[in-house]
């Protein structure tokens, strides 16, 4: 991997890690469902007029949008609103990797590997420890909603695999923008139904420059810039080379939440976080270790 592309990968990691700070700041004045909807409004317009619809059916596009844009982001934002710290949210959300595995095995008949089982056990142990540490900044509702968000993301990942089979060099940014377009109406309806018109009016009057800045960050940097650069990396390198960068996102999320928001992590939450990180590393990179060991043995 060229140095320039490594730098691009690190920029994406930082942008996505700080994304959780922006969510927390935006939620101070804007209701969660409305914040998600406004994010996609700013993401899609006027960019949609310059990006063609991705080469998948409307049914697949709807399924992806409902699982990821509506399901994942709504549950994540609500979870962070009702009591999930930004740093822990950035880490717990990465359990999507294991939901992707479980759903892929059940739906697509994918095979387990030793690193999948080991990673699932380690991360599951970490989740159990964190989930048992309610109180302080984290609530059971917030934790449960972020886990549910991760499950929706995992389902979306499996749907994406099915939807993009046989399509080389898939346009990721185009997909993200068009998924956002499809999500806007359901999100607006949900916001009006669950949060109410009065909440919209209150947000209009109370949202300041910090909330507006957070919204712009979510729409332009976390979405357009982040996914645009990520898509470029995936067009140049195999997914196995690019995906490990995502392991650094919760590191940035946890660190920035402590430094910028003053969040605290208890000893047991730290132990749980460490187990989750180790589980993610084993899950993503474990197969390469086995291959590397075999190559070493063959060369000797």
Characterization of this structure:
Residues 6-130, 142-282 form the EamA domain. It is a single chain. By secondary structure, this protein is an all-alpha fold. The protein has one domain. It contains 13 helices and no strands. The model has no long low-confidence stretch (mean pLDDT 86).
Estimated share of beta-strand residues: under 5%
The overall pLDDT, averaged over residues, is: 86
Distance between the termini: 27 Å
Count of the separate structural domains: 1
Tell me the number of helical segments per DSSP (H or I, 4 or more residues long): 13
Q: Cα-atom Rg, whole angstroms?
A: 19 Å
- Global morphology: globular
What percent of the residues sit in helical stretches (DSSP H or I)?
A: over 70%
Global structural class: mainly alpha
Major beta sheet summary: none
* Low-pLDDT ranges: none
**Pattern of helices and strands:** HHHHHHHHHHHHH
Report the count of strand segments.
0
Protein name: Putative amino-acid metabolite efflux pump
Membrane topology: Multi-pass membrane protein
InterPro entries: AA-Vitamin_Transporters, EamA_dom, EmrE-like
Family: Belongs to the EamA transporter family.
SSE diagram, text form:
Blueprint: H1 3-26, H2 32-44, H3 58-82, H4 86-92, H5 96-108, H6 114-131, H7 140-163, H8 172-194, H9 197-206, H10 209-236, H11 239-242, H12 249-261, H13 267-299
Helix pairs in contact: 1-4, 1-10, 1-12, 2-3, 2-8, 2-10, 3-7, 3-8, 4-12, 5-7, 6-13, 8-10
């Amino acid at each position: 991997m060229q140095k320039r592309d490594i730098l691009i990968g690190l920029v994406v990691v930082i942008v996505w890690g700080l994304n959780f700070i922006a969510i927390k700041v935006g939620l101070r004045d804007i209701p969660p469902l409305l914040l998600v909807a406004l994010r996609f409004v700013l993401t899609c317009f006027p960019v949609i007029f310059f990006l063609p619809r991705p080469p998948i059916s409307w049914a697949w596009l709807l399924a992806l949008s409902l699982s990821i844009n509506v399901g994942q982001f709504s549950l994540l934002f609500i979870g962070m609103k009702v009591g999930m710290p930004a740093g822990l949210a950035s880490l717990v959300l990465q359990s999507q990797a294991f939901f992707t595995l479980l759903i892929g095995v059940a739906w697509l008949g994918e095979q387990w590997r030793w690193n999948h089982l080991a990673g699932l056990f380690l991360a599951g142990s970490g989740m159990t420890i964190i989930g048992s540490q309610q109180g302080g900044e984290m609530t059971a509702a917030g934790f449960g909603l972020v886990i549910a968000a991760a499950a929706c993301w995992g389902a979306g990942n499996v749907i994406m695999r099915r939807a993009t089979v046989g399509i080389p060099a898939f346009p990721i940014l185009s997909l993200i923008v068009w998924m956002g377009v499809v999500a806007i109406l359901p999100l607006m309806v949900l916001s009006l139904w669950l949060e109410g018109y009065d909440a919209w009016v209150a947000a209009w009057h109370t949202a300041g420059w910090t909330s507006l800045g957070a919204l712009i960050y979510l729409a332009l940097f976390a979405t357009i810039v982040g996914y645009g650069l990520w898509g470029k990396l995936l067009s140049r390198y195999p997914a196995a080379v690019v995906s490990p960068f995502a392991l650094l996102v919760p590191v940035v999320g946890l660190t920035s939440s402590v430094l910028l928001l003053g969040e605290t992590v208890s000893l047991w939450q730290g132990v749980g976080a460490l187990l989750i990180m180790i589980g993610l590393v084993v899950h993503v990179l474990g197969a390469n270790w086995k291959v590397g060991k075999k190559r070493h043995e063959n060369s000797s």
